[in-house]
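Milestone 3.1: sequence recovery, worked example.
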């Protein structure tokens, strides 16, 4: 992802997600030199993802495929690629937060080996009130994918 991509990325984000990131949020991630990537199909940008890695710990911050391209394996390919980038930057564990109502994303993360390890109460703005965040983790070194925090 480059600064030139942000308009299209923000447009895809707004069509895919009821509470989209702002263009400024993507610009911040680029400035912070997080792993920011786009998915291109036939010259069109159809998805984007962001993973941040600090001191061996990765945060999967954003995974998005625009609505018309969903359900065809691109989200899985993107998430796989972001995990490879985290591994290349020496991450040993990946965390993410997801809305419990986001069944598609939770199913995807589950098949990648992520396991739920906790909740943040009322973390997200919702259409009515607030919604919890489910915290999921993946141990990149473990064959089971399970991670324990103490
Ligand atoms: C989550 C998202 C990235 C998945 O991308 P996608 O390209 O549609 O997903 P894929 O086609 O690669 O499918 C990956 C897995 O997701 C799950 N999945 C996909 N569509 C699904 C559906 N309609 N119902 C249930 N699970 C579904 C399945 O586990 C699927 O694996 P399988 O095909 O082996 O069964 C996409 O739906 C999206 O961008 N959503 C809006 C943004 C968002 O919510 N991002 C996550 C924030 S934490």
């Amino acid at each position: 992802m480059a600064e030139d991509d942000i308009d299209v990325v923000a447009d895809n984000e707004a069509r895919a997600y009821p509470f989209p990131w702002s263009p400024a949020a993507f610009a911040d991630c680029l400035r912070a030199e997080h792993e920011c990537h786009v998915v291109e199909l036939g010259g069109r940008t159809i998805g984007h993802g962001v993973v941040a890695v600090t001191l061996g710990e990765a945060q999967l911050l954003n995974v998005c495929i625009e609505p018309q391209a969903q359900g065809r394996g691109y989200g899985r390919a993107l998430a796989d690629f972001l995990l490879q980038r985290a591994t290349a930057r020496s991450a040993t564990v990946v965390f993410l937060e997801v809305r419990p109502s986001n069944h598609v994303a939770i199913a995807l993360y589950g098949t990648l080996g992520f396991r739920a390890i906790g909740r943040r109460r009322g973390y997200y703005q919702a259409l009515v009130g607030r919604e919890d965040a489910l915290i999921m983790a993946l141990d990149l070194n473990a064959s089971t994918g399970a991670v324990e925090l103490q």
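The mean pLDDT is 94. The longest strand covers residues 44-54.
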